[in-house]
Amino acid sequence: MTVRAAVILARKGTDVATIEPGASLLDAARVLAERNIGALVVSADAKAVEGVLSERDIVRRVARNGAVALRLLVGDVMTAEVITCDRHATADELMAIMTERRIRHVPVVEDGHLAGIVSIGDVVKSRMDELETEAESLHDYVTGSY
Questions:
Q1: Does the model's pTM come out above 0.90?
Q2: Residue 135 is part of which domain span?
Q3: CATH number, domain containing residue 139
Q4: Does pLDDT of 145 surpass 80?
Q5: Closest by alpha carbon to 34, among 22, 46, 42, 26?
Q6: What is the spatial distance between Cα 6 and Cα 106, in angstroms, rounded to a whole number?
Q7: 134: CB partners within 8 A, 6+ apart
Q8: What total number of domains does the chain contain?
Q9: Residue 30: which pLDDT band, with cuts at 50, 70 and 90?
C-alpha cells in the first residue's frame, strides 16, 4: 500500500488531543469522552511527545486499583515508550507496527515536534478507500469506460 501517513493526515487533519502529565486520569477520561477518541498524546507543551494514554490504560488501572485510580496522574500511568513515525511511513508499515506492538495509535513526529496522530481506524479507512479506487479502475478497464 503506497498511502503514506502524510496522505492520511491530509484527509483527517493534524489536530491532536494532548494532555499534560500532571493531569489526573479523571481529567483524561473526560477529554477522551468529550472528543470521542481513544487516546491522548501526553505532552507538557503540545509539541514534544512524552507518552500516550489510552482508554485501555485507564480501564486497566481502574480495574487494578478501583475508582481511586482516577486520582492518579497521567504521567504515572501513560505509556512512556512511544512508537512514533514520520509523514513518510506507509500504511503497510503502520499496520505492521500496530499489529506487532498491539497498539492502536501512532503519533506522527517531524523535526522533534508532534505533527499528527494516526489511528488503526485511519489506516483501515485508507486501505478501504484504496481498494475501492482499484475496484473502480478495474471495472472501468473491463467495461471500456476509462
A1: no
A2: 5-143
A3: 3.10.580.10
A4: no
A5: 26
A6: 13
A7: none
A8: 1
A9: very high
